[in-house]
Design brief:
The protein has 5 helices and no strands. It is mainly α.
Length: about 130
């Protein structure tokens, strides 16, 4: 059975969209984890920096005096909450991008799948 050039093209595009779909799905699953548990996806350096006052103070600007222990704890905890919010926001932004990619992927796949089916059902010329 000989395939027409249009059918081969359409099915190739369908294959590529499926590969993109699988990759986007993996990224999207990670985004859900990042949104639901931002502490898990937070970079190790940011996580480690917020685990103790000692670790947090090592990243304190040299030109500013180090605050008292209670104030440093308060600043560290605020900074940690801000880092978690930022991580969650990054996950939401990435999930929106993935959603856009999946939407485009589905449209391109549907168009080319129909194109391939039409090309297959056409009688062979020659």
């Amino acid at each position: 059975m000989q395939r027409s050039l249009v059918e081969v093209y359409a099915l190739t595009v369908c294959f590529v969209t499926l590969v993109c779909f699988v990759i986007a799905l993996g990224v999207g699953i990670y985004d859900f984890i990042q949104i639901g548990n931002p502490e898990f996806s937070l970079s190790s350096s940011t996580y480690d920096r917020h685990q103790s006052n000692g670790a947090f103070s090592r990243h304190w600007p040299k030109d500013k005096p180090l605050p008292a222990d209670e104030e440093l704890t308060k600043l560290r905890e605020e900074s940690y909450r801000a880092a978690l919010r930022s991580e969650k926001r990054t996950g939401v932004q990435s999930l929106v991008r993935v959603g856009i990619i999946l939407l485009i992927d589905i449209v391109v796949f549907a168009i080319h799948w129909r194109m391939g089916k039409r090309a297959r059902s056409m009688p062979e010329v020659g």
